[in-house]
Write a structure and sequence with these properties.
This is Maestro-like HEAT-repeats domain-containing protein. By secondary structure, this protein is mostly helical. The chain contains 9 helices and no strands. Helix 6 packs across helix 7.
């Protein structure tokens, strides 16, 4: 399996090549290896993020379609990892990320699962807190993914691949989105007074000795 993983990373790297022939070959290799070994792969989240990083630079339609088809194949066995990984680059949701989400839900059973997982992420509502260093804390990361889930759901509800899944889950989807909007508004009401208090404290003169 290590050999298959190495081949996949070689293919992902090749997607960023300036040579159209190499890009096409890389996309074909990526699809072939994932078709053969996709169910047993590990570090799939990193692979999904790697494909996203290079997808926008792919100008050959067939190569781009092959890369997206590889995501569809991976989604059959690795939906949770890919959903979490895709949320990390879906705020805001650019055109490349949107195409990856559509590829993720291209098969009907998977689209229902993706929608259910996005709804679950939407309900992750920890208060945002900053870690002491530049990296987000686990709570901060969950908060950002929750916002990204709302953003993604708003877009995917109109995507052809998710039309049936959205129709079946529409009551839960509507309630979840309304709840998230209410939560976000409440969060702003909580954080704004705190910021005002911090500003007042900063403006107070220090006691004279």
């Amino acid at each position: 399996m290590a050999e298959a993983t190495d081949l996949i990373w070689t293919a992902i790297s090749g997607l960023g090549s300036s040579s159209p022939f190499r890009v096409q070959a890389a996309a074909e290799l990526l699809l072939a290896v994932i078709h053969q070994h996709g169910a047993k792969l590990e570090t799939v989240a990193n692979m999904g993020q790697g494909i996203h990083l290079r997808l926008c630079s792919v100008r050959i339609p067939q190569a781009k379609d092959n890369a997206l088809s590889a995501i569809t194949l991976l989604a059959r066995n690795h939906t949770p990892e890919l959903v979490a990984a895709f949320l990390d680059f879906s705020m805001p949701l650019d055109s490349c990320a949107f195409r990856l989400w559509r590829a993720l839900g291209a098969e009907q059973p998977v689209s229902c699962l993706v929608l259910a997982m996005l709804l679950a992420w939407l309900q992750e509502r920890p208060l945002p807190t900053r870690a002491s260093n530049s990296n987000p804390s686990p709570k901060e990361k969950n908060y950002l993914r929750s916002l990204a889930a709302m953003n993604t759901l708003l877009e995917l509800q109109f995507a052809r691949e998710f039309k049936k899944a959205v129709r079946e889950a529409y009551p839960q989807l509507l309630l979840a989105l309304l709840t998230q909007v209410h939560y976000t508004l409440e969060l702003n009401l909580v954080t704004e007074p705190q910021r005002g208090q911090q500003a007042q404290e900063a403006a107070m003169p220090s006691p004279q000795r």
